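Worked problem 6 (solution included).
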Amino acid sequence: MIEVIRRIVEFFPSLISLITVFFTMLSVNTELFEIDRSNQISRIEALEKAYANGEIMPVDEATFFDGNLEDELKSGMKFNEVSFLATHNSYQAPAFDETKKLFSSLSGISFGIYNGKKADFWSETPTDQLNSGIRSLEIDIETFDCDGQVSFTCMHSPYFEMSTYCSDFALGMKEIAMWSDNNPGHLPVTIIIEPKSSFLPMKNMKSFSVDYAVELDKVLRETLGEKLFTPADMLRDYSSFGEMRAADDWCKISDMRGKILVLLHEGSVTEKYINIDPSIKTQAMFPMLREADIDRDCTSFILCNAPEDLLEIREELDDKKVIARTRADKFDSVSQERREQAFESEAQIISTDYPPRTDSTADSYIVSFGNLKTIRKR
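Solution. The predicted structure is:
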């Protein structure tokens, strides 16, 4: 009884704090958004200048590969025969102070059930991640439509988790294209795009639809240009991914160097996006599906975030020649068992919140294929 009373006494101050912090977030929301946008513009301008002046040297892809990269490329190593270390919420900048206070209040009102440490998560910039050997990024997007002028921004959610390096999605793609220009011949980069639909939208924020998916295709073609490796590029003369997979003929990595693939995360719009052209030859993005869709002709990539589930269907995935993405961990939830299951699953895309970083130290917890290697042959 005493414990119940104590919790009740603690609850009301936490509730008042939560309400106060939340309304503060509402009032400064636009200001915080503009701060991120201004920071992004300044950072891209600085990168452009540094690249133009030759101040940023290209990376050596071989240093990230677990093995002899040149020998594997000469042997005809295919895209589905490689595992790439990936990052999750790859755009997320350090949280604003207001966000940290909000998460702390949520933790207090839920008596710790809601993890306040979630606000401590942040990624390095996309450029720094690519320079550290990461070749697969995940980006959440929100859609804005102001009188027919459609734009996209990268964020986890407005008000709650707004901080981002890519306030302007198109400018974020420019950043990746600039890195690609500075690293000709790099191994293919995969970008997973997960559209969001916030329950508490900002002004002009809209739910993602198939029409917006078509707009997103246009932005990708405009910003990435010839660097964009489309489903048609992967399919070549095959009529479907089912036919290509049956022939075990994913493209060779040597033919995909310097290219960027974009995957549309499975969601409410996926089927409508597929129905635009079930062959997927005219779309810019590869639709990601789930385990139940392995036998479909349009299937190329699947999501199976729980590695233990992926292990159960590993034989079927190998037989169907489908590429899988799984997760080795979640922020502040590290499991050696899950990490080993992710590696054992031989997923081609293995996402982690603990990748090698430019600020990693000897005692940092890091997920890699050993010795900071981020790419390996399966």
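Discussion: The two ends are 57 Å apart (CA to CA).
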